[in-house]
Structure formats: structure tokens, C-alpha cells
Amino acid sequence: MASAALALGCTVGPALALAPSAGAAEPLTVQVHCVIPLDQPAVDGPQQITLEAPSEPVRPGDKVRIKVTLGGSPATSPLPFPGTPLTPSIQLVLSGGASGELTLQGPKMRVDIPGTPAQIVVPPYEGEVTVPLDAKGDIRIAPGKMVTSTAIFGDQITTCFPTAPAPPATTLRVDLSAKGVDGPSGNPGDPGAVPPAISGQASAQGPITLAESPVASVGEVAREAGRNGVDVVSRGEDDGDISGGTIVLIAGGALILLMAAVAMMYSWRRHSDDEW
């Protein structure tokens, strides 16, 4: 008897309604056929449902939020069950710029299920879906099957089917001008993209020309790099170029070592002569 509360009229059926404009929130009154768990008899009757989509254009691949608002269900419960955990979901049937079905999953909520003859009303909820990547224009969205999980004596599933295809309840505007990657802006997948210059490397402005001398001064390198818009980065000895200052230091060190060697030789010769 308690499980009769699971007969939530959450799905939609046919209606005599025209396709609404983008983002419209006009309710549809449709016929539903709900299959109730625990071997209870099925329930038929009218169900009101409203779908609200964003009014601004979206792009293929974008994530959008759809709001679902339900009217009173044709199903009732013989007993009240306050604070019952409930998780709704609805199937969205696409037409126009895209085809197929998307499942919008609602959040887990607590619902006060009244006893008969009061109607059961699921509070409005929102869910997120992804615009198909192959969308070719504006997408019309019609409500389809809805599955409701209710925590009464365990998880009980109520599935409601439309008795006939429902008309669109809202339209999602799709902007195709921004589809795909842009021009040579460096976006992935663009054959004309120019990779950004790395600090210390030459950009597309042209190669850096150093002095023809085998030893280029640090100042010449810095000035040439500055004219080409390249950051001057300190480099180690692996670069192969030796500055003039480095050569002077090496020559000075070699000269000092040579003078020390001569002094030692002179001292040794003098010491040898004294012994004789």
C-alpha cells in the first residue's frame, strides 16, 4: 500500500502544441502511462510539464542547464510519506539541428508525498546536458520518458512513458559561427597556427646574425638579440662561443703559470750550482 506513493506522473505524452521559441517556458499538458513497482497497476492520465532552456545561443560541445517543472501527477498515494528521498530524471528527445536522445539527471531531493486524493508534485529541478558536437542548427527539445527513484522500502523505480511522441517544449539556439578552431591563433588542430616563441629562441621575425668573428662580444650578442625581440638568456660553456674577456683571463692565467715555471727552473739551477 505504501508503495503506491511511487506512482509519480513524471513523464509526458502527446499534446496539441506548436513548437515554442528559444528558451520558452510554455507548459505542455500530455498523457502519461506510468509503470509502478511492487506489482501495482499502471496509472494513466494527464501530466503538465515545462522545459526551460537558455535563451542565448550556445555552441556545439557546450554544457547547458535545462530546468524541468512538473504539475501534479495523476497518480496518488493512499498514505502520506513526508520527507521521502527522491531522484528524478527525464529523457530529452532532440529534433531539428540534431537528433537522438539525451538524459537529464536531476538532483536527489526530499519530497513530501501526500495521501489521496491530493496530487503528488515533484519540485522543479535542473540538470546539465551537452550540446551534440554534430549539431547543424537550432535544436528542438521534446520531453520523453522519465524515471523516478524513490526511497520507500528500498529504492523503488517508477518509469513513465509517453503514449505518443510529444511535441517540442523548447528550442535551443545553436551558434555555428564559432564551431571548430579559429585561424592562426595558436589553437590546437589549426594547420596555420604559429607556435609561440620560447624565451631565448628566435621568433618569426628572422634569424639572429652574429658577428663574423669567431669570438663575438657579449654586448654584440645582447644588441643583436634586442633588435630581434629575443630575451637574452645566460648560457653555459656548451654554447661553443668564448667571449673576449674569457680569452684574456685564460691568457693571463697561462702567463702566470709560465712565469712560475721559469722561476722554479731558475731556482733549481741555482741550487744545483751551489752544491757543486
Q: What's the β-strand tally?
A: 10
Separate helix tally: 2
Approximate shape: elongated
- The structural class is alpha+beta
Share of residues in helices: 10-25%
Strand content: 25-35%
Describe the protein's architecture and organization.
Helix content is 15%, strand content 30%. It has two helices and ten strands; from the N terminus they run E-E-E-E-E-E-E-E-E-E-H-H. Strands 1, 2, 3, 4, 5, 6, 7, 8, 9 and 10 form a ten-stranded antiparallel β-sheet that branches. The longest helix is centred in the C-terminal third of the chain and has 32 residues, at 244-275. The termini are far apart. Residues 1-19, 180-219 and 229-240 have low confidence and may be disordered.
Short description:
The chain has 276 residues and is of the alpha+beta class.
Indicate the topology:
Layout (H helix, E strand, L loop, with lengths): L27 E8 L7 E10 L10 E8 L10 E16 L3 E6 L3 E5 L11 E6 L8 E13 L3 E8 L7 E3 L45 H10 L16 H32 L1
Antiparallel strand pairs: 1-2, 1-9, 2-3, 3-7, 4-5, 4-6, 4-8, 8-9, 8-10
Tags for this entry?
about 280 residues; about 15% helix; 2 helices; 10-stranded antiparallel β-sheet; alpha+beta
